[in-house]
Amino acid sequence: MNTQLLPAPTAHKGPDGAGPRAGSGERAGSGRFAGQHRLRMLRTDLLTVAAWASMAAAVALWLADGGAASISSPASAVTAAGIVAGLVGMDLVLLMLLLAARIPLIDRTIGHDRALEFHRVLGKPSLYLLLAHGLLVAVGYGMAEGLDPVSESVALWVLVPDMWLAFVSMGLFIAVVVTSLVAVRRRFPYEFWYAVHLLTYVAVGTSIPHQFSVGGLFAEGTWQRWYWLAICAVTGAALLYFRVVQPLAATSRHRLTVSRVWSIAPGVVNIEMTGRQLNRLTGNGGRFFVWRFLARGLWWHSHPFSLSAEPLATGPDGAGTLRITVRNLGRGSAQLASLRPGTKVAVEGPYGLFGTAARSRDKVVLIGAGIGITPLRALLETTPFAHGDATVLLRGSTKQELYLSDELLEICRRRGVRLFHLIGPRARWDSRSWLPADAVRSGYSLAAYAPDIAEADVYICGPNRWAGNVIAEARAAGAGAEQIHHERFDW
Amino acid sequence: MKARGAVSAALASAGILLAGWQAGAQVVETSSAVAASAGTTGTGTGTTGAAGTGSAGTGASGAAGSASSSGAAASSGASGSSGAAAASATYKGALVQTRFGAVQVQITVSAGKVTDVTALQLTDDDRKSVQISNRAAPLLRSEVLEAQSADVQTIGGATVTSDAYLSSLQAALDAANL
Fold first, then answer.
1. What average pLDDT does the segment A363-371 reach?
2. Chain B contact present for A226, CB below 8 A
3. Taking CB atoms and an 8 Å limit, are A144 and B157 in contact across chains?
């Protein structure tokens, strides 16, 4: 085992030195991040309420229109169920779009990856609701007219204006969800999956006409129509603004240009960029940006990478440099090693909650493996903590895999941080282990390295399986769910 | 924290649903009042003895048939007594079910010519259908009066209503032997 212990020179008081340990019940009650944490939890709850309320509103508007009273026969009951399924399904689709719109409020509250997780979770239910909508309405209408659902569907397609668009929309929704299922996604290149995903916008677009021309609830002159128009418009505007306008504005504001590309380990390169107004990007250590290098063959790949060094804005107008560290993970990343200085860079972000905004405690524990170490570096540089209140654990199977370890060592010295290098092959006999085999044999655990983990914010960045094991052990050591900050980077 | 979010979400949703339900109940009360008054005026106008044949046309529902026959006796005497060619008679079309509600028309025939078409019932399942019906009915009426047959263009954007209207009309024309 190659464990390197660096006692902080000034404040080596140990976890118990700072007076009586706060009881676990009131840990979040004080400290400089307590207020920020309470606010974030409040925002989380408000967003939860808003999401559920929007679904309730979809049904309530139907009820307010006399929906329940229109049920007078089996046929109308089936039709009514179909209409409700369609309304809730539409609401879920709009929620999904909002979750994917990278709205700062959502991003700063639950984080980009959790927003996308909810987005994925909603995918199947909304498809099932839309399918149920189509089937139930066809059956219900068919029963009222004495037709079987198939000929009723044909009649709807042929006779009712805008309905053929709705059928097209349904087909697109099915295509999008099927291609998004992870199993299928693996067999296609990411760009194909992405292009199919863009079809969602077409699917939503083609579904809207029939809602307003055929749907009785959206009839002209009703205030329900205005409600639905408004939420459709708000969703569209949010997507347009946060996913198109803002990235373009950021790109033209910062004018990022590749200035230097150098290799720091086999397959790992540092990319340094110069730009303007970089001070507007500082202070968020660990959050990630979506980069697009505007060179031939590269511009259509977008790369989500964290900064590996806080932007240094030295010149006037915030002119300065920033840096990312990239390992060859995919085809796209491999080409980055051949980037030429002078290449223009489009940037979106910062996104994610892997930064100071997520802090809830005074102490902090940073745990990174492999290339996952690099976002920790920027975070360690800026996030506030007192001497002796931070612990950093770096994991790699060889010393070369501890990327940027020299820089990290330097920061740890300067800020009084305990730093451990955990080097060696993993313990293959223990599927729940995240430590090197030597450390496991010697009986070390997470609490041995970070005894105060129960009262610290824990930032974890590394491969998914490994990170899962770390999270499990951190939870077992007493860290609450809200103290654990994990960023997925195997996009 | 999770519990707080879940509870407030549940409460908010329940409140919204309740408000919707309440508003819905009020809408139903007012609309049923309107329907009731509409119903009385409908029976007040009365119909002729031809009603029986009209409803037999394509085998409409029993309820519609019985409703029309009750009014029939009253007015059939009046229009039937004149007996001359100038006498006008009314014929009811079949009750046609559509996905947006039932449609039934009545024609007034005088001297072998259709002089008027009245819609006894139009697609009215929801507000949109009512709107479509209100727009389509006058157009269809004038088209039919001009063509003197059910062989007219359907109204764009009101295809379902038009088709039902015209097939009910055809039944009425058949009943009148036109």
1. 92
2. no
3. no
